[in-house]
Amino acid sequence: MQKILLYEQVSEIEPFVSKRACTLLHRPQLESFIGIDKFNLVVFNWYDLHSRMKKSPQVAICFDSDDIFFLCENEEALAMVKKIIAEQTQEQPLSNEELLYHFFMRLLRNDVNYLNDYEMLITEIEDRMVAGLQKDYLTKIISYRKDLLRLKRYYEQLGFVFEELTANENSLLSANGVQLCNILSRRTDRLFASAVNLRDYIAQVLDAYQSQLDYHQNNLMKIFTVVTTIFLPLTLLVGWYGMNFDMPELHSAYSYPIVIAVSAFIVAALIIVFKKKKWM
């Protein structure tokens, strides 16, 4: 028997599973994989690559040698599972092992292309950042990091499930079923490695963005420092001749032009020195 239900309909499958399995299914928190006697329970949080859902709905798959049941946390996950099962069984009926294999293969079908497109997006962000054509880099980078973290966790949990199925400790799966789970495990490992590499890549882009910000800030501070240094001697002159003393040079007819000339000379000399040292 193959059946797709919501979590609240779990009582409908109780006649077909053992009492111990029923007890497990009524737990508020289910482990990713439980294998007892001739019964396996697989639990994972479904991550829709094309959805912006903040919470990934949970899907549980209970199966033994005769029956397989899909339990979904919400209506969206239920519709997704029904669609996939209908696609896989429309040509011919599948055994439980084959259905399990084709279900997960369908879930992971376009993930490689999705990750490749994601890499192109990150590369485009990096190019535009270097060229200075875009300003909201930080928002996009943080958004990409969150998405890739969810994706990494998604592949991580699936990898754990497939490893446990491949181990086949309760001997529920046939040799062919173990081989199919091994294929799924290797595929998930590659996807997990790609997601980790993309997270490393986005971290490098973030570091490059931070370095670019630091570079611009340093240039700005250098400009302020140069301007301050140029006008510091003039500030000294203002302070000196602003004192309330009777200075002899103030009575000369040439004192004012001389002060102007000295000030201009100081500014010009400092500008020449800074340009030679490439500080300007």
Structure description:
With 280 residues, this protein is an alpha+beta fold. Among the domains are: 1-107, 2-Layer Sandwich (Beta Polymerase, domain 2), CATH 3.30.460; 218-276, Methane Monooxygenase Hydroxylase, Chain G, domain 1. The chain contains 7 helices and 5 strands, in the order βαββββαααααα. The chain has a 5-stranded mixed sheet with strand order 1-5-4-3-2. Strand 2 (33-36) and strand 3 form a beta hairpin. Helix 4 runs parallel beside helix 6 (175-241) and helix 5 runs antiparallel to helix 6. The N and C termini lie far apart (79 Å). The model has no long low-confidence stretch (mean pLDDT 83).
SSE order and pairing:
Blueprint: E1 2-6, H1 19-25, E2 33-36, E3 39-45, E4 58-63, E5 68-72, H2 75-89, H3 96-107, H4 111-131, H5 137-167, H6 175-241, H7 255-276
Parallel strand pairs: 1-5
Antiparallel strand pairs: 2-3, 3-4, 4-5
Helix pairs in contact: 2-3, 3-6, 4-6, 5-6, 6-7
Low-confidence stretches: none
The global form is: rod-shaped
What are the secondary-structure elements, in order, as H or E? EHEEEEHHHHHH
Annotation, overall tally of beta strands: 5
How many H/I helices?
7
Strand content: 5-15%
| CATH 2nd-level architecture of the domain at 1-107 | 2-Layer Sandwich
CATH fold naming of the domain at 1-107: Beta Polymerase, domain 2
Strand order of the largest sheet: 1-5-4-3-2
Helix fraction by DSSP (H/I, runs of at least 4): 55-70%
What's the alpha carbon Rg, rounded to whole Å?
35 Å
CATH hierarchy class name of the domain at 1-107? Alpha Beta
Average pLDDT rating: 83
Tell me about the largest β-sheet. 5 strands, mixed
Structural class: alpha+beta
The N- and C-terminal alpha carbons lie at a distance of 79 Å
